[in-house]
Write a structure and sequence with these properties.
The protein is of the alpha+beta class. The chain contains nine helices and 13 strands. 28% of the residues lie in helices and 28% in strands. Strands 8, 9, 10, 11, 12 and 13 form a six-stranded mixed beta sheet that branches. Strands 3-4-5-6-7 form a five-stranded antiparallel beta sheet, with helices on both faces. β3 (61-64) and β4 form a beta hairpin. It binds a DNA duplex through residues 2, 50-51, 65, 67, 70, 76-77, 82, 84-86, 88, 92, 94, 104, 126, 128-131, 148, 150-153, 165-170, 192, 195-196, 199-201, 288, 292.
Length: 318
DNA sequence: GCGTTAGAGGGTCTGTAGCG
DNA sequence: CGCTACAGACCCTCTAACGC
């Protein structure tokens, strides 16, 4: 199976003349590390979109991948930046221009591309409620080190065909949690109570199968060690990227001290907690969900966000 | 209110090609 | 041989409409 890995050649930023890649400077200017709220602007739906109107962020969350990094605005990938032998980036055409072509097509960014603010503004029409919830959690927790974590090469038996297929599940949030001897990695799956997978008239909502699938993935040999190594590296990369930005004169808000400490001393990150937790956005209130559906899943480790104060991830049992 | 469905969007996986 | 770049296939997630 494909190894779960996080790596990025951040040195390429120092050996590249960044005036030839103005988009990189612009993306870093709009980077809000976890713990810092991005400025919010009102957005009103127009035309035939189904999206709800409401406040939208004007800031970017960075997620380190294997060989590249994504800059997200409200859960939409505004730019995918490859840092390997060279420095390059691409973004979807619908963020680059108002008249978006129908096709799923990405454009490589060039020397004339440096307008992240307008890319973010165009992305507002695509922001989903669950992703805006994730954005709120990022703003409230400096310990968030990854979002949209992809779980590669998971073999799952398709119940319809009985054939094993490779699927790429994702986990919404990855965070650090303080433990007695250092820090550990915890995983959160954000959900809205309105999500049909959280509800059933029967006894077993679909979310149970999803949690079981996560457990199966983490139970594979080597996975725990690989994930631990990957997130130690992630901390190093985040610190290195911020330093590049600061060296370029960009005031990226400060990182949580735990990320800095782990980057400096990776062994401070002791282990991962393979028990994925549910994070449910109950700020709007859903009496029916509380009474009928929540009781069916109370045994799943979870945190219910009922007020903005609850956005701070709890220090729960290991 | 619930379960199903389709469309949109976005990510990974795979294979292929090029390079040192 | 390993890494990188690229394109197409595939399947996930989310939203909202629809019928019961």
């Amino acid at each position: 199976m494909t190894k779960f890995e996080r790596k990025l050649n951040t040195k390429i930023l120092k050996s590249t003349d960044l005036t030839t890649t103005p988009w990189m400077i612009d993306l870093l200017r709009h980077w809000y590390p976890a713990d810092h709220a991005a400025p919010m602007v009102d957005w009103a739906a127009s035309g035939k979109t189904r999206k709800l109107s409401g406040p939208r962020p004007m800031g970017l969350r960075l997620a380190v991948r294997n060989g590249y990094a994504n800059f997200y605005c409200g859960g939409q990938s505004i730019a995918r930046v490859t840092m390997g032998r060279g420095l390059s980036a691409e973004t979807h055409q619908k963020y680059l221009a108002d008249k978006a072509p129908n096709a799923q097509s990405y454009t490589k960014l060039g020397a004339d591309h440096a307008d992240a603010a307008s890319w973010m503004a165009r992305s507002h029409a695509y922001h989903g409620i669950e992703k805006l919830f994730v954005e709120d959690v990022c703003a409230a927790n400096g310990t968030v080190i990854d979002i949209e974590m992809g779980l590669p090469s998971l073999n799952v038996i398709n119940p319809a065909t009985g054939i094993a297929q490779k699927v790429a599940l994702r986990i919404d949030l990855v965070a650090l949690k303080e433990v007695a001897d250092g820090w550990q990695v915890v995983f959160w799956e954000a959900k809205l109570p309105s999500d049909s997978r959280m509800r059933t008239t029967g006894e077993t909502p679909h979310i149970r199968a999803q949690m079981t699938t996560y457990a199966d993935w983490f139970a594979q040999p080597e996975v725990s060690a690989d994930v631990l190594a990957a997130y130690r590296e992630t901390c190093k990369i985040i610190v290195a990227l911020r330093q590049v930005a600061v060296d370029e004169g960009i005031d990226v808000p400060p990182l949580h001290q735990a990320i800095i400490d782990i980057a400096d001393t990776p062994s401070l990150l002791k282990r991962i907690d393979t028990q994925v937790r549910l994070l449910i956005d109950m700020r709007k209130g859903d009496k029916r969900f509380d009474e009928e559906h929540l009781p069916k899943i109370v045994d799943i480790p979870m945190h219910c966000v009922r007020s903005d104060a609850d956005l701070i991830l709890p220090v729960v049992r290991s």
